[in-house]
Write a structure and sequence with these properties.
Number of strands: 9
CATH class of the largest domain: Alpha Beta
Largest sheet: 4 strands, antiparallel
CATH architecture of the largest domain: 3-Layer(aba) Sandwich
Structural class: alpha/beta
CATH superfamily of the largest domain: P-loop containing nucleotide triphosphate hydrolases
Strand content: 15-25%
Order of helices and strands: HEHHHEHEHEEHEHEEHEH
Helix content: 25-40%
CATH topology of the largest domain: Rossmann fold
Strand order of the largest sheet: 7-8-6-9
Shape: elongated
Length: about 250
């Protein structure tokens, strides 16, 4: 975003690398970091009109942005009286007024209650599906990220130590089927009959199955039809936080 001086390495943004090229490429970026830059004495619409004027664009999209961010109902209410979630959403709307191709958000769910987090997640997903924007999220709420992110870059001590896709992460964190039954020995016989070989008996009642992850219903049906008492069955995985700590050596402050 050009907020600090470069002291090493190189940046490529939309195919541009030189100083002038980067300045031009940054016009395609929208960003909302730390404290949103809003005018507290103005309402949502007035804030967006100011941002449109600053960006040298028209006001034709303001109504759509207010709808997209669930702010159409705020009317003349001043921003100083907005909730934290409303201010976060207005800050994002302000960045979208210039129709960016890349949106950078720093901790967009920070301080929000559970319903606000869900709402922000849905908004980010709509930005991708409805407007075709690439969204770069910086966050320490890793399990929340795992519900929307398609690619991950994991930072430790200021360096990227791993980059991977959602599918690669699923393999790394090893998703599996959790089966709980009072008849583990009989359940194992059924798994063998179904051709399932990659499983592990954890306890006398718990079995983890590491293959055929899309066949939960089929496995459950065969167990029940064979009179195996199934207490619980479903997919599970190692938490993203656990994977992060594993990569960083277990330092919770990394």
């Amino acid at each position: 975003m050009g907020l600090i001086m470069i002291d090493g390495g190189a940046i490529e943004l939309f195919g541009e690398t030189g100083m002038k090229g980067l300045q031009h490429a940054r016009r395609k970026i929208g960003q909302s970091i730390e404290t949103p830059a809003l005018y507290p004495e103005l309402n949502a619409r007035q804030n967006l009109r100011v941002q449109a004027a600053n960006g040298g664009v028209g006001e034709w999209e303001i109504d759509e942005l207010l709808r997209l961010m669930n702010l159409s109902h705020t009317g003349k209410k001043k921003v100083k009286n907005f909730s934290l979630g409303m201010r976060q959403r207005l800050a994002i709307a302000s960045t979208l007024i210039t129709n960016p191709e890349l949106l950078i958000l720093d901790e967009p769910t920070n301080g929000l209650d559970p319903s606000g987090i869900v709402e922000m997640r849905e908004i980010i997903q709509r930005l991708v599906t409805e407007r075709g924007i690439t969204v770069l999220l910086s966050s320490h709420l890793l399990d929340e990220l795992s519900q929307i992110a398609t690619h991950y870059g994991i930072l430790h001590d200021g360096k990227i130590i791993n980059e991977l896709s959602r599918e690669e992460l699923a393999r790394e964190t090893r998703q599996f089927i959790e089966l709980e039954t009072t008849e583990a020995e009989q359940a194992v016989v059924i798994l063998d009959r179904l051709g399932i070989q990659d499983y592990e008996v954890i306890t006398g009642t718990e079995i983890n199955i590491y293959e055929r992850l899309d066949d939960v219903a089929l496995i459950n049906r065969n167990l029940v039809l064979s009179d195996v008492n199934v207490l619980r069955i479903g997919t599970s995985r190692q938490k993203l936080e656990d994977y992060f700590l594993q990569l960083t050596g277990g330092n919770p402050h990394a």
